Amino acid sequence: MATKRRPSFNSHNPVNDEVVGTYPIISKGEVTGTVALARAASAQWQELGFNGRKRVLVAWSSLIINRIDAIAGLVSLETGKPMSDARLEISMAVSHIGWAARHAESIMRTSYRRPGLLMANMAATVERSPIGVVGVIGPWNYPVFTPVGSIAYALAAGNTVVFKPSEYTPGVGMWLAESFNEIAPFTDIFTTITGLGETGGALCISDIDKLSFTGSTRTAKLVAAQCASVMTPVVLECGGKDPVIVAADADIKRAVDATMWSALANAGQSCIGAERVYVDEKVADEFIARAIELAATIHAGAPGEGNYGPATMPSQIKVIQSHIKAAIADGGTCVYGGPQSVKAPFVQPVVLVDVPENSTAVREETFGPIIIINRVDSMKQAIELSNTSRYGLGANVWSRRKGKQIASQLTCGMVAINSTFAFAAVASVPFGGVKDSGSGRVHGPEGLLEYTYARTIVRTRFYLPLKFLSFKRRAQDDKLVIALTRILKGRLG
Ligand code: NAD
């Protein structure tokens, strides 16, 4: 009798389209089974306590850094990015694992709250507990750093995790769980399931307690809808169109260096990568001239040959091409590169200037090695234009004196002043966006608390003669409560 072949898919090297590996498409039934095992393991993982979990996570982080070339090689193979970039990404992820492991206990410590005058006889406390099983769905652009920002924090808080990596980087996703399981005290604490969008969909409606998604805004809406149908809460880390504001008093040389790296590194496939620059017209010519000069020294190519690699996802080439064409058709000017810079799978750097704000190229996430530089007559205008986007992930501000003042007026989740990307590397600060860039946070205390729930406990310390939480409440009790409320002007609670 012929046996039924298991559905599978291949991951490819985007440089030459060669098959890197073949992975099973995990079915809905198998997702259910995996989540059930994760739930069964949950109690034992919680019982291990903060110290026990810290030991496991720190051991995992050591294992990853000791084998950095193995995992970086796989990242480079599946995404096409240079080894050096892969190593940097992995090092940053390892720091996050260590931070989450070391800080979970203090972040989740029971907090004591003031009960207020009317409740002065009560002790009020808030405890934090892990939510149970966390589902994580990840993208391919930073296939270690991005999912680890959810996985490590969820594990440190005492949850078990089921992870669905991108279909472009399943090998990296498998490596993460396999390496964890080498040092895990028992199975099913952290499992990777491979597959396409349907497998991710099955995870959304499975018996998980929270879903942490990183990917495009379009998919985030589908994920949120599926999760809403079963009342599963979500963290959504989505796309961006990050602005860079350059004031007249900026260090232009440094601003150009960081901005061009932010825009071009990883072939522009960074959610927090610079996509549009608003530069004060007084320094715009210098900024543009330096940007062109720098772009001319940067080349896309295979790992070992280029400063950055190919477009990892072949379909992105069409989006990049259409944005360059739209920018030109709408009145913008290519001052370096142009439509001819796109030679799949590589895209050489493109610098566009004076692109009208209503152009698709300015409004939509390009996710390619392209930078748009527009002049502004004031910082007020730069702030307004930055904030008109439907996205609100990160932003960079370059100014010697007004950095903080500008940063505080931006509608976005993170701002780097006289720097770029820095907030992603600081483990103690939350990472995430507003508007179409998502909701909820990863990293830092806020990110860890996403994978916990608050349990309020109020305890009677002594009894008051006042019986207002009883059918024995008397008219004089009512009068007293109202009189106190009036005198204290709402300071009762
Ligand atoms: P994507 O939305 O195409 O896919 C993300 C994941 O969702 C993949 O694992 C995919 O298999 C899964 N998926 C697809 N359809 C699904 C469905 N119906 N239900 C459940 N899961 C489904 O995104 P991508 O192309 O992998 O990643 C690039 C995007 O991610 C960019 O927009 C980028 O800005 C964003 N991103 C955001 C952050 C952040 O922290 N905000 C970080 C990295 C990437």
Q: Care to give the gist of this entry?
A:
GO terms for molecular function: oxidoreductase activity, acting on the aldehyde or oxo group of donors, NAD or NADP as acceptor. The protein is an alpha/beta fold.
Could you name the CATH homologous superfamily of the largest domain? Answer: Aldehyde Dehydrogenase, Chain A, domain 1
Q: What integer value in Å does the Rg equal?
A: 26 Å
How many DSSP-defined strands? Answer: 22
Going by helix content, strand content and strand pairing, the class is alpha/beta
Supply the number of helical segments: 17
CATH topology of the largest domain: Aldehyde Dehydrogenase, Chain A, domain 1
Label the CATH architecture of the largest domain.
Answer: 3-Layer(aba) Sandwich
Q: What share of the residues does DSSP label as strand, in percent?
A: 15-25%
Which molecules are bound in this entry?
nicotinamide-adenine-dinucleotide
Q: Please tell me the total number of domains.
A: 2
Query: What oligomeric arrangement do these chains adopt?
Result: single chain
Report how far the terminal alpha carbons are from each other. Answer: 73 Å
State the share of residues found in helices, binned by percent: 40-55%
Sheet with most strands: strand arrangement? 12-15-16-11-10-18-19
The coarse silhouette is: globular
Catalogue the unreliable spans. Answer: none
